[in-house]
Amino acid sequence: MTVLADLTFSAVALSAVYFLAASGLSLIYGLMDVLNFAHGLFMTLGAYAAWDLTTHLTSTLSAPLNFAVGVVAAILAGAVVAGLTELWLIRPLYGRPISQILVTIGLDLAAVGLLLGGFGSNSLSMPVPLWLFEATHWGSLNLPNADFVALIAGVVVLVGLEWFLRRTRYGIIIRAGVENRDMVRALGVDVGRAFTLVFVLGGAMAGLAGLLNSVVFSGDLVSPLQGDGLLIFAFIVVVIGGLGSIRGSAVAALLVGVVQDFSNYYLGTHPGMAEIGNLSVVLLLAVVLEWRPRGLFGGTL
Amino acid sequence: MSTAIDITDLHVTIGGSHILQGVSLQVASGEVVALLGRNGVGKTTTLRALMGLVPRSGAVRVGDQDVTRWPPHRIARLGVAYVPEDRDVFSALTVGENLRLAEQVAAPNYDGVYELFPELRQRTRQRAGTLSGGQQQMVAVARALLNEWPVLVVDEPSKGLAPRLVSELTDVLARVSATTTMLVVEQNLAVVRRLAQRVVVLDHGVVVHLGPVADLEDAGLMRQLLGVSA
Ligand SMILES: Nc1ncnc2c1ncn2[C@@H]1O[C@H](COP(=O)(O)OP(=O)(O)OP(=O)(O)O)[C@@H](O)[C@H]1O
Ligand SMILES: [Mg+2]
Known about the structure:
The complex is a heterodimer.
Chain A (H helix, E strand, L loop, with lengths): L1 H31 L6 H19 L5 H28 L6 H23 L4 E2 L9 E4 L2 E4 H23 L1 H18 L4 H27 L3 E2 L3 H16 L4 H22 L8 H16 L10
Helix pairs in contact in A: 1-5, 1-6, 1-7, 1-8, 1-9, 2-3, 2-7, 2-8, 3-7, 5-6, 5-7, 6-7, 8-9, 8-10, 9-10
Chain B lengths: L2 E12 L2 E12 L3 E5 L6 H8 L6 E6 L2 E2 L5 H6 L2 E4 L11 H8 L7 H7 L1 H5 L10 H13 L5 E5 L7 H15 L3 E5 L3 H7 L2 E6 L2 E7 L6 H8 L4
Helix pairs in contact in B: 3-6
The structure holds adenosine-5'-triphosphate and magnesium ion.
Adenosine-5'-triphosphate (ATP) binds next to β2 and α1 of chain B.
């Protein structure tokens, strides 16, 4: 029972990171038809921005404050880079979705190459408060604090995003645009601004996902290829949830996180089964698509 | 009388097919013009080209602006409201959100819109996707009337509606036409007779007839142009 509860908790924390990585990807695709392969880069850059700031500029701050600076840096770095990507690379290619996809792949390859050249391929260690390594004991349960942080971040972003999409004018524009971009334009709305906005939002969430991925699952290590590794799962979450659906991303992230963690725990220790978690996720994808080709929430926000 | 819409030699090619092959038509300010033609001759494409929704060549002027190269949102903001062929209400949005999305002026005329469609007032929180076809058409028209823009472009308002709804909607459009320039595509000739002063007939991507609405009474001409008996 305790094992089950502990395992569920860590699976949900993993799901939270997947959700953060996937929701922006899903919004960008839903609104703009752009499969954003640079999303992994936004995650990686978020983690590097946090690492750079917390190990250099603000390393003399108290550990919790320094970590808070890292979180803000990751979010801002993701948002700024994503916003500039939209303005400089995506915008000139409006109406040419294939070129847009190719340019995001190119950007990702080039920037990851630069990171490898600049920082080396070795992982760098991020300073984090010791508290994150500890666990909160609750009865017989043993809940890692880092997982709490991921979980809270995921819930806050989910609630905030839902609020934004439902209550603000830009949120309504985005939901409407996912359904029928041309009609939004014909009502006199400049959808281009919403395009930049979803990139900025998606980038912010990706930056945060990149940092949490390092802190929660990679032993505080930051590496140039981490985002692209996470991106694969983010894409799977988006496809399972249904392109363009935030709720779909949330539900799919839970499914993927739970399936992955549980199969790793129960089967992964057998010889030759080290990859069983990833394999299970791919199987899950296949099953869902067989049953619902447009994903669980395909088509609606 | 000044010209509200001036389309000259409009060409549209989509996916290799040359759909509009030099359409020219004018709508004077305050006038209601009906665009007629058999299925698939390019009526919807003409309206979409006017709104900037498809790549086009030739010249499209709205008021004194050449909008040929403008994006749709700028054309709309000149004061051109659009009701598309299949309503295109946003089904995942509520009625209220559909209307809110259409707000483009400081004081949108909600009172006027709810007076024309009292039913919508009770349904502001209902998802538009769960409305009947007639109610969806009300949302689409309400969306277009909210800003009280001077020009209204409507594509087959009566399509798929029950006769009672057709006459209600025609009443609304007739009231609106007193203060609004209109270009309306419509297959229902009774509706055309009530609304329009002039008719323009398209065939295979070109204008084949222009004339007063009284031309609809020329049965021989209508059979030849539309393949219907009027
Ligand atoms: N996106 C598109 N791609 C390819 N062909 C198209 C497209 N849109 C329209 N067409 C073709 O262009 C022609 C004109 O279509 P359009 O919808 O403008 O006709 P219409 O006069 O409005 O017809 P209807 O009375 O059926 O509404 C048709 O043959 C149609 O098949
Ligand atoms: Mg049509």
